[in-house]
Amino acid sequence: MTAYIRTFADGDPDDVALLGGKGAGLVSMIQNGLPVPPGFVITTEASREFLRTGTVPPECLEQARTALAELEETTGKVFGAGPTPLLLSVRSGAPISMPGMMDTILNLGLTRTAAQALGEVTGSTRFVADVTRRFHEMYADTVLGALEPSEEVAEALDALDPSVDPGEAYDRIWGLCATALEDELAEEVPTDAVAQLEGAIGAVIRSWNTRRARTYREFHHISHDLGTAVVVQAMVFGNLGQDSGSGVAFTRNPVSGEPELYGEFLTASQGEDVVSGAYTPSRIQDIEHQLPAPFADLRRYCAELERQRTDVLDIEFTIERSTLYFLQVRSAKRTPEAAVRIALDFLAEGQPPTRALQGLTAAQVRQVARPRFAEDDVRAARDEGRLVTTGVGASPGQVSGSLVFEAADAQRLAEDEQPVILARPITSPADLHGMIAARGIVTGKGGATSHAAVVARALGTACVVGCADARIDPGAGTLTVGETVLRSGDEVSLDGSSGELFAGRLGAGTEGSHLEQVDDLLARCREMAGCEVYARVTLPSHVEQARRTGATGLVTAIDDVLAATGHLDDLVSALMSRRTIGADTARQLEDAVATALAPVLAEAGEQDVNVRALDFIADESREFLQQTPLLTVHPALSLPLGVPELIRAQLAGLARAAAEAGRTLPPVLAVRHVSDEREARALTELAAGIKDGRSVRVGSYATSGRGLAHVGKLTASTDVYWVELKLLLAAYVGLPARLFNAAKPLDEYVQAGHLGLDPRVEIEGPMRQALETVVGACAAGTRPGVRLSMPVTDDLVDSLYRLGFRRFAVDIDELRPLTFALGKAAAQPA
To answer: pLDDT of 358-371, one tens digit each?
Structure first.
């Protein structure tokens, strides 16, 4: 029989796949002596069985009842009864953190008998009434699907006489909740504690497949097959009074990366109150004055946990009558800016690079380097009184867009490529699809650990929360501050760092202000990786930008350069107007190449420059080149060396450009689609035939399996060899390369499950084997390179680095992400 249960005491903290992240974290903390309420984990195997059969395994529920009896013995409390009642929290715990996406039920096991005993133990009838309301509403929402809590219940709680008997208070609040639920759904919350537990376990397991959870996994490329664990834990109560409370702590600031304890705390509350956004909590430092002893424990344990895990941590805790308890620990979501600062600090503190860089991604490096608002525009907006409100900057980024108030509107407009800013009083998991679609998010309530803040940081979306002076009315479609009223469709600009919201669109300025920190980090990454990194340039102005960003060499393409200078249209027109390609067309091409490339080569100085020859069958240029009629007239243009006169013209033009630029290092002309040693020899002979043939080296871009297989023979005749990875990966799955240039429709196709891999970022079996042979098979003195013409990802670069590649070429905007990803790959153990 499958064992579905692990207690906190006997679980394996390294088995995250089985225990989930939350369960593994609790097991680790309790085994390291931290104050954690006891409990047990229902493993992900139960969830996967549910996915297979549609039911929770009966033996799982039987084992849970056995574990519950052991938990009663451990705590000395009784589930659902007295004299000391045991209440439980039942929470989801996926192997990969999905904050706020799945369900939780607190205070489970509350019966009338337990409520009476709880009142006697705590001495607080109001506490019993509050727990009764919380449990009934949460169970009704999570398990039964109730939509809204009853206002009548809240009013009754406010009016409750604290001297009334706890049992009577329970009857009053439970009765009102039950009536509201009956009116809405004709359902009822079980009064039997074991039935409550079984219902909660099923609901948490089912929450793995809710729309919001599936949407989150699809956005973050998380497998739907992992399943969730269920964490069942003895309750501790932060809502017992002013010496109690709940909070969220980060071992370092997740917004800025500052090495300080950061977070929020709400007295007389339970954990859901802190993160719901319905309340504005206090800074965590305020606990030091209110509750100095538990704060000292918190600071000490947080430092200890960070040392143990060598990562910045997100910790949920409760203080019950001045005693600290930990309820969760996980790797902290952090802004890209914070991730850069933290990685630098960890390196400076002597952490191994493998650990220091683990919390930062190439995508985050890319985001830090993105453009910001023009400073003059920001000053003008302030001077003109267009600063509408200032809240808490929860996730950096400076963005402009049209104001919307409903998640569905954000999604609809974003699908039409309209940038939008989503404004909500608070956000909830039901808003996720709109939050993903929005360029920025603003809320009226909540703090830096609210739902909006945490999800925005995970998405990398600019976000401002806690705009206390703003009245956001989704029904009316208005955001009002004093006499200023912004309406749906109005243009606004949002600064997720400063927390400012401006009326109107602000212009974009220069690159991000954190680039100095990024570049400091990238200097370390270059040392670790020892790679050559080439940047794609088209204009002379690009060259200095590439050099400043760390490029060791440059790549360009004749079709790009000619298009940018207006010569490509003329060439295509000339080719279309002639049935044969003669000396006049070749001369026109030679002159155009010399004219367009001379300024680029002059700006490059003695940097290595690799120039790709015209590719008349390039998928990305098919419309510009009028491929169908052009190749009908001149089918030989489809072949790498099909029209030798044009190859010779490009070689001659490049040689003239190099001479005019005064270069001593010869540039390279590399031809796409070369796959045979005879083609390589012919290319070398063409180069030797031009005036001063030594002024241009030659090479090839491999775009086929044959081009990879014959690398040794090709490099025996030529100087340079590039792997055109996008074209190879596209050909491998039989898709047009142009689909690799945009998220849609390939994202949706992969997410729909039609492909078992994302071909833009994953290299599997046969392709991996083909690439693996390239590095070792190259002729002596030839260092193969990889042209990455799509966004860099950590996994893709790591794969290529481990295959032995040490030369890469990317677009300028991808230089920083690539450099970081290479350093991260180099830091990993072999």
So the answer is: 999 999 998 888 76
